[in-house]
């Protein structure tokens, strides 16, 4: 009898938890925070610079994330270890000095033992860090931890830094539901609301794969959760904000049949979303990153392949859209522009950080290091 109770009670709790997480209290009129202070210098010469990040942090590394500090320097974080999911995986950090254009020596800032102490629970592994810079100057680190099984049972945590990432306060587990509270993952950028609350672009992988926004405050209190997709196979949303109400999400397609980047639009600051639709951009179940330039044009970094291709991540393209992500034109390849089968590399998990005229592009390079490409808006103009 006991085994039957366990067999049926766990799925039941999970379903109740999912329902509960989508009926959290709202916050009234919702608007995105839009920064109107950035300046773009289109009369400047095009900039295209390359740097390597993360060398020496561990044998295998993945999922880089960055923010711009008030000094103009960049703070980066990623996870690295013997291999993905290994017990020795830790979250590492490095700082890019914008004056001498050098990355600092990587240092470990968080591991499973520290997280276990902070949360007072067993932690099997950590991964997928996402850095966020709040308008108040506080830096937040969101990341996932796993206590049992694989990534699909992840829990979402956050830690704060008040000194630009030099030190971090104890982690806090974000509670979306009192029932199990598992299978919330993150990968891409975080959005800010007008009232100072934060929209974590999250996704779910257990009993269905879908995307949603988890809205929290800086204290780590979960305020609301907005479902972005209502079917299977749409994960790792990348959100482009156009104004205080309009946003578009581009999502990774984890299916075996469609294999296209998925798109949905919100006209009420992410509270509700249109039915998602497949674009014409191929997607071999790999992450994308989309961003908006200062002319409100949309750009996306992606792997131009399908699962039918032998090497699904041996190229990395950049595409532009003039209609908020409905139609795309590939303009550049950061890796393997000829899409040759002789290139056995794996280039994945792109990330973009903007700062005025500067655009910093990052991606995993063969799990050995990260590529950092610095361009400006003048360089983007050369592609049009």
Molecular structure report:
The chain contains three helices and 26 strands. The strands form six sheets. Strands 2, 3, 4, 5 and 6 form a five-stranded antiparallel sheet that branches. Strands 11, 12, 13, 14 and 15 form a five-stranded antiparallel sheet that branches. A four-stranded antiparallel sheet has the order 1-26-25-24. By secondary structure, the chain is mainly beta. It has helices spanning 2-21, 112-119, 377-382, and strands at residues 48-53, 60-68, 74-81, 90-97, 102-103, 107-111, 125-133, 139-146, 155-161, 172-173, 185-186, 191-192, 198-204, 210-216, 222-227, 234-241, 247-253, 260-266, 277-282, 289-292, 298-302, 316-321, 329-335, 347-355, 358-365, 369-376. The longest helix is centred in the first third of the chain and has 20 residues, at 2-21.
Structural features:
384 residues; mainly beta; Neuraminidase; five-stranded antiparallel beta sheet; 3 helices; 26 strands; 42% strand; disordered N terminus
Q: What fraction strand?
A: 35-45%
The oligomeric status of these chains comes to: single chain
| Total number of strands | 26
The backbone outline, from C-alpha atoms, is globular
Name the average pLDDT: 90
Number of helices: 3
Give helix and strand order, one letter per element, not per position.
HEEEEEEHEEEEEEEEEEEEEEEEEEEEH
Major β-sheet, in short?
5 strands, antiparallel
Query: What is the domain tally?
Result: 1
Rg for CA atoms: 20 Å
What name is given to the CATH topology?
Neuraminidase
Q: Spans with pLDDT under 50 lasting ≥5 residues?
A: 1-26
The level-1 CATH class: Mainly Beta
CATH architecture: 6 Propeller
Distance between the termini: 67 Å
**Into which percent range does the helicity of residues fall?**
under 10%
SS-derived structural category: mainly beta
């Amino acid at each position: 009898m006991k085994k039957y109770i366990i067999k049926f009670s766990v799925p039941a709790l999970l379903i109740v938890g999912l329902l509960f997480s989508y009926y959290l209290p709202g916050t009234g009129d919702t608007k995105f925070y839009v920064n109107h202070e950035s300046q773009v210098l289109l009369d400047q010469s095009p900039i295209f610079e390359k740097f390597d990040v993360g060398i020496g942090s561990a044998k295998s590394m993945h999922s880089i994330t960055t923010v711009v500090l008030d000094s103009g320097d960049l703070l980066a974080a990623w996870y690295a270890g013997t291999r993905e999911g290994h017990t020795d995986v830790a979250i590492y950090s490095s700082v890019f000095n914008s004056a001498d254009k050098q990355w600092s020596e990587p240092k470990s800032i968080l591991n499973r033992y520290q997280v276990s102490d902070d949360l007072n629970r067993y932690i099997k592994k950590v991964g997928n860090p996402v850095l966020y810079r709040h308008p108040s100057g506080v830096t937040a680190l969101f990341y996932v931890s796993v206590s049992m099984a694989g990534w699909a049972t992840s829990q979402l945590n956050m830690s704060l830094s008040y000194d630009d990432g030099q030190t971090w306060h104890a982690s806090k587990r974000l509670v979306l539901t009192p029932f199990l509270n598992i299978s919330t993952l993150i990968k891409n950028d975080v959005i800010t609301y007008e009232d100072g609350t934060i929209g974590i672009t999250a996704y779910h992988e257990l009993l269905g794969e879908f995307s949603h926004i988890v809205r929290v405050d800086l204290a780590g209190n979960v305020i609301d959760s907005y479902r972005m997709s209502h079917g299977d196979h749409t994960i790792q949303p990348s959100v482009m904000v156009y104004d205080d109400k309009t946003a578009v999400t581009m999502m990774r397609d984890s299916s075996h049949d469609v294999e296209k980047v998925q798109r949905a639009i919100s006209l009420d600051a992410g509270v509700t979303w249109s039915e998602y639709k497949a674009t014409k951009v191929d997607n071999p179940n790999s992450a994308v990153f989309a961003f908006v330039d200062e002319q409100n044009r949309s750009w996306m970094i992606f792997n131009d392949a399908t699962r039918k291709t032998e090497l699904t991540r041996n190229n990395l393209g950049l595409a532009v859209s003039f209609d908020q992500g409905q139609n795309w034109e590939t303009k550049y390849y950061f890796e393997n522009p000829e899409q040759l089968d002789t290139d056995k590399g794996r280039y994945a998990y792109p990330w973009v950080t903007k700062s005025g005229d500067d655009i910093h592009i990052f991606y995993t390079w063969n799990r050995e290091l990260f590529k950092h490409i610095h361009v400006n808006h003048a360089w983007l103009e050369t592609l049009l």
